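Async update (no meeting this week)

Hi team, since we skipped the sync, here's where things stand on the single-chain job. The sequence we agreed to prioritize is pasted below, unchanged from the tracker. I ran it this morning and attached the output directly underneath so nobody has to dig for it. Comments welcome in thread, and please keep replies under the output.
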Amino acid sequence: MTEPFISNLAMILNKKRESKDFFHETQVVRLLDNLVSALMALRTKGITHGALNLTNIYLGSDGSFKLLDMDLFFGESFAYSECLTSTENLKNYFLSPNLLSCLKSKLAKPFSDKEKDDIYALGMIALELISLENLFC
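Output:
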């Protein structure tokens, strides 16, 4: 029986920040490789995530992970809509520069390439994993 996925990447990062316990480079590369593989598998099904963040990646103790997609449950551009509702929500999402520009203009329907948004978020996630710095602040 597998362990339930109760720790998301944000929770794990917070614990590592407190103890200053850096990820090993191979852990970061493996996680990013797995995330890219999952995104590519979704793409073959015609699905683009478009809202990667630290709270929708859940890890198991065996190195496996689950990737949540709130857009599937709540509709297109959930993260963007959350930030449009309250700028306080900006600290929870890695919005690409294009989405931030749309947000600045308060566009109800952003024009964005969700694949590029995922690539941007992957880069930001990698930077947080490597540095243990909180990039939302």
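Quick observations from my side:
The first strand starts at residue 7 and ends at 8.
The chain has a mean pLDDT of 83.
Reply here if anything looks off.
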